[in-house]
Amino acid sequence: xxxxxxxxxxxxxxxxxxxxxxxxxxxxxxxxxxxxxxxxxxxxxxxxxxxxxxxxxxxxxxxxxxxxxxxxxxxxxxxxxxxxxxxxxxxxxxxxxxxxxxxxxxxxxxxxxxxxxxxxxxxxxxxxxxxxxxxxxxxxxxxxxxxxxxxxxxxxxxxxxxxxxxxxxxxxxxxxxxxxxxxxxxxxxxxxxxxxxxxxxxxxxxxxxxxxxxxxxxxxxxxxxxxxxxxxxxxxxxxxxxxxxxxxxxxxxxxxxxxxxxxxxxxxxxxxxxxxxxxxxxxxxxxxxxxxxxxxxxxxxxxxxxxxxxxxxxxxxxxxxxxxxxxxxxxxxxxxxxxxxxxxxxxxxxxxxxxxxxxxxxxxxxxxxxxxxxxxxxxxxxxxxxxxxxxxxxxxxxxxxxxxxxxxxxxxxxxxxxxxxxxxxxxxxxxxxxxxxxxxxxxxxxxxxxxxxxxxxxx
Amino acid sequence: xxxxxxxxxxxxxxxxxxxxxxxxxxxxxxxxxxxxxxxxxxxxxxxxxxxxxxxxxxxxxxxxxxxxxxxxxxxxxxxxxxxxx
Lengths: 459, 85
What we know:
The structure holds two protein chains of two kinds.
Chain A: H1 2-18, H2 25-28, H3 34-48, H4 56-69, E1 76-87, E2 93-98, E3 103-108, H5 110-113, E4 125-135, E5 140-150, H6 155-170, E6 187-192, H7 197-209, E7 214-219, H8 227-240, E8 246-251, H9 265-273, E9 278-282, H10 290-294, E10 297-299, H11 302-309, H12 313-346, H13 355-377, H14 381-395, H15 399-404, E11 409-412, E12 430-434, E13 439-443
Parallel strand pairs in A: 3-5, 6-7, 6-8, 8-9, 9-10
Antiparallel strand pairs in A: 1-2, 1-4, 2-3, 4-5, 11-12, 12-13
Helix pairs in contact in A: 7-11, 8-9, 12-14, 13-14
Chain B: H1 12-28, H2 33-55, E1 61-66, E2 72-76
Antiparallel strand pairs in B: 1-2
Helix pairs in contact in B: 1-2
């Protein structure tokens, strides 16, 4: 019995050695109880048959090679929802794409993900492009992602939404931040391309509305990779000057790609930081760019921006002339009222406190006329005519006019003092009486009996 | 009401607003004659300021040119080819 058993063992061993296996079951069982092994070994040998025994690494490698050779797993697109997203300090991105029933580990190396224009994050549904392989150390199959697209929305649009949310949270779009535009800018700054329709349209509109406004163009590249830095620099250059009262930043219409410069974060911040108020004019009638949100005013086109930037000179001039007209009329009316009142007064017996008062006013009016005339020389002819008419009317109020109408001015001969109170004149007192032509030397007989001499109030 | 009008400091908007105010006051008829004349004088002065503000700009168009050494120049700007003037 023992001999037979030993014989079976020997044959089994020989068979194993001859089949070319590098590592036999016998070798690995060196630490096991030899008796137990001897009992189990033939049964195990029976079950294992001729199958090869791999190491873990060998098997993993085999799977990897199979996967990498299979065309079904090369350059594929996979749609799923991002979860467990990690952006390593190394720059590599690791995440899992999942759907209702399964999960797929993914890695996107830095060299590929630097070009991404949106930020992948958990919950986002994306389409990942790449090839399957195996990360041998962990024994996991992975999708090595080379391209990533947001599913359902363009990458650009998503980036726009993300930046908009971020800047809004910072308060950059707050209405309270927006500065009022100057009503009458003397110099308008423009940031745009020096060629093209936008600058031409803006200059045309500015010139039409306000022919003598100054314009300073800070030329910039308004699309492509170089756009943002160029626009930012142009805004800075205009801010360095002290003569720019308002600036327009913009370009003509284009696709979302072409307008992308005005959705750039750096450009948005440069507009927010600008000391000079900014009107944004990115030719896109219905959609807004980030620049539109940050700017102090938004215009749907460059031409519209120019209309906002300056007023119409002719309109302002008309308004000014309207006010001047009313000014003259109002003063004329006021003086006429005074004259009428004075006319009532002069119909009474004497002129109360006439000379000083009227002379003062007459002198004021003379000075006014003189100075106003100088002012008027700068403006319209009609003003001069009005002033003359005014002065002419007032002439009638002067003492000379009064004298012309037959009234006299009475003075104490000795002192030259004007007589206003008849009771203060003593009988026999010498008086000088000025009439229109010449002067009389008189002697008072005394106060004549009072008939109707009211005290006259002054104008 | 009888403020001294600082010519150098007033903007068009400020001068015009003050002029409107003076006109309204004069039209109200509540003003004595002397004050009327003073207001009139100020009004004429303000109108002159407004006028000079409208004429202040010189109508220059320039473009900026940044040199490699960092200096910035102004050069006269000509509009790109008159396709449709």
